[in-house]
Design a protein that fits this description.
Rossmann fold, six-stranded parallel β-sheet, 13 strands, globular, binds guanosine-5'-diphosphate
């Protein structure tokens, strides 16, 4: 990828896509294109093909997807499988037909089997039953990963894919009904501090372990893979480090400056006890994360105060 290469970031306004655009700009790339949902409906095959024919991007980051928390995944499985398959089918096939030099497809660590050995190696994909609550999303994403693999195998297309762990950072979803734990707790602790509340409710027992990667690191890892990887198998992107939800809550509490108590609500689900990626493949390729968790939480809290409130 050259600095003047034409790069299309699908999903450029989302948490993931916007971080990829920032990273590419920092690296001096000046010919980045994106389309909002209103400008280009990626579910519409004809429009997608017209876009690729007219714009002729050389590199594609496929970061557009229908995403949502456990609740949305549970209620709208038909929409999750259909929309994600449509988006990725249209973009991957158009990229192939209109001779894109390289494409990176983004999966997600939640599509590994429910009962995976830990830490999760790339080869564990499809080795067991999926988590029932996000089966529709997982099936679509697994198809996308496999599609890249098969276009490479059959036609020699340079299509690769990666599997990011739990992400956080600017532009995250801070809506308490649909958000993940990191933005939820940042918001809860902030509001408790401002309103002088005595405690903050933390869901579950606090014992589950999770790995968190700042989106800027994820974007850097994606751009690294674009320049340095052309294998058939997807590559995990994470830190390889995990922390309990209790430790996370205490860290956020300290950063926000809340002085009250934590109250664990055991009526809320814990989810899977542990979800850690094995990142040795990416390490061997020459990339590791940079943003330390505390620094990442501080900057995300700053972004939240500046942009969300
Ligand atoms: P998961 O990684 O797919 O399980 O998704 P989440 O990020 O939503 O939840 C991770 C863990 O954080 C679970 O054990 C939740 O019970 C716990 N948790 C604690 N407080 C909250 C909260 O306010 N919101 C969410 N979403 N999770 C919370």
């Amino acid at each position: 990828m050259e600095r003047n290469s034409k790069i299309y970031v699908a999903g450029h306004r989302g948490l993931v896509g916007s971080a990829i655009v920032r990273n590419l700009k920092e690296k001096g790339c000046s010919n980045i294109i994106g389309r909002t949902h209103e400008e280009l409906d990626l579910k519409d095959q004809k429009s997608v093909r017209n876009f690729f024919r007219e714009e002729k991007p050389e590199y594609v980051f496929l970061a557009a997807a229908k995403v949502g928390g456990i609740n949305a995944n549970n209620i709208y499985p038909a929409d999750f499988i259909y929309e994600n398959l449509e988006i990725q089918n249209n973009v991957i096939k158009a990229a192939f037909d209109y001779k894109v030099k390289k494409l990176l497809f983004l999966g997600s660590s939640c599509i590994y089997p429910k009962m995976c050995p830990q830490p999760i190696k790339e080869k564990y994909l499809l080795s067991g039953y999926l988590e029932a609550t996000n089966e529709a999303y997982a099936l679509a994403k697994i198809s996308g990963l496999k599609m890249c693999q098969f276009f490479k195998r059959q036609y020699g297309a340079d299509f690769i894919s990666c599997m990011p762990t739990n992400l956080y950072g600017p532009k995250d979803n801070f809506d308490l009904n649909s958000s993940h734990v990191m933005p939820a707790l940042i918001r809860k602790f902030h509001e408790a501090k401002v309103n002088n509340k005595e405690f903050v409710e933390v869901w579950g027992t606090g014992t589950p372990l999770r790995e968190f990667l700042h989106v800027d690191d994820m974007a850097d890892g994606c751009v690294f893979l674009m320049g340095n990887y052309d294998g058939e198998e997807h590559v995990n992107i994470g830190t390889g480090k995990e922390i309990t939800i209790r430790e996370l809550a205490e860290t956020i509490k300290e950063i926000v400056g809340f002085t009250g108590e934590l109250k664990f609500n055991k009526d809320k689900p814990d989810g899977t006890p542990r979800k850690l990626l094995d990142v040795s493949k990416l390490k061997e390729l020459g990339w590791t994360y940079k943003v330390q968790l505390k620094d990442g939480i501080k900057s995300t809290y700053h972004w939240f105060k500046e942009n969300y409130l």
